[in-house]
TrEMBL record:
Domain Tyrosine-protein phosphatase: 92-348
Domain of life: Eukaryota
Regions of compositional bias (Basic and acidic residues) in chain numbering: 410-420
Matching Pfam families: Y_phosphatase
Domain Tyrosine specific protein phosphatases intervals: 258-339
Family per similarity comment: Belongs to the protein-tyrosine phosphatase family. Non-receptor class subfamily.
Descriptive protein name: Uncharacterized protein
Spans annotated as Disordered: 1-47, 398-420
Amino acid sequence: MTAPFAKGFSTAYKRARSQDSPTPLASPPVLKATKVEEEEQVEPGIPSFLRQSQSAIRAKFNDLAWKEKLRILQGRSDPSSQWTQDTGPMVMKRNRYGNVQPWEKSRIHLKVAEGRSDYINASPISLRDPRTGVETKFIATQGPKQSGLSHFWHMIWWETTDVAVIVMLTQTHDGTTEKCFQYFPLNVEAGSFKVEPLDKTRDTPEGSVTLLECHVDEDSRTEVRKLSLKFGADKKDVWHFLFSGWPDFAVPEDNDRTALLQLLKLCAEKNTLPSNPRVIHCSAGVGRSGTFIALEYLLAQVDSGAILDAKEGEDMIYDVVNRLREQRMLMVQMEGQYQFLYEVTRDQLKQRHLQASRQQSPKSDVQTSGMNAARDVHYGTEAHDDFFSHAKIDESQAAGAAAVNPGEDQAEKARAEGTF
């Protein structure tokens, strides 16, 4: 398998993977990012990076792909590099996909006896708020395999605090292809799932996962489960969120897009502290997982107003995706997902401005309301101004650009490999 880089990278990538031709690329090609289109009206209060053309955004995504390619090449040529990856047989056996795994110096280590493999395909993620300095933590991981079920639950036990939060962004199967093993009980009738000790030679207790309650949250279109994770006499509550409105090789659309925004809020509310890492996974743990994490961070900057602190020439979305990829490869894997971040962030910021302008102009609202009331009495109708209470995100398809740009080649490769 080869990683699905943008079109034009495939030949160089194959050379990089070949042991016979290890020559690295000296530098990426020159990428000419298109500036904000001259005919586009400058919107007050919208940072310039949110007013870029699709071609400019595409160029930046390609630049991110080149940066990652160079990290991989450096990791292969320099054993002391922070971008090295373990390619041992045990590691490859535990990976769901052969081309997606953590950087060796940025991964979760299982608590095992000395001499045993502590590998799990999971990466610690940390994003710092630019205003407050508070770090919000996550763990991005692949959908567990059946052979890794115990590894996954031991990681949940050791890496989270008193309450664990898991967000699952994939179905267990796509047709006949497994995307994630069924690692939790779907209903009470399923009984408890057993969690084997990682070291059976030691006198360590067997664990269990039990379903306590389950319901569907209509606003977020999410199956919400409260689970109990237990080892011996000790136990921990686990909130599990299964969101099925995010299809492979695409982004949420229409009502699913609105539901995703509600899920972001819901899972954050169940968490105890930003320092308690929420566990986010899809199938490979990079595409949808990376987009989810990036989107939560960006919308937090919209809420706080920090997004308006961006200086001319600064691109907060490019920067956060680059930081994510420094912590786990391929985060925000597809160009359509990258475009999606710009769309949703821009639309949410516009809604904020709209709400703020109405709150700051009560006199104007009263006058407008009076005029509307007089008009309605005149015509015998009842006014229903639902625009502001039902403002929706622009539902233009975020992945549309992929059909006419290098992202199409990525999508075809990703489909062939199933690594999304």
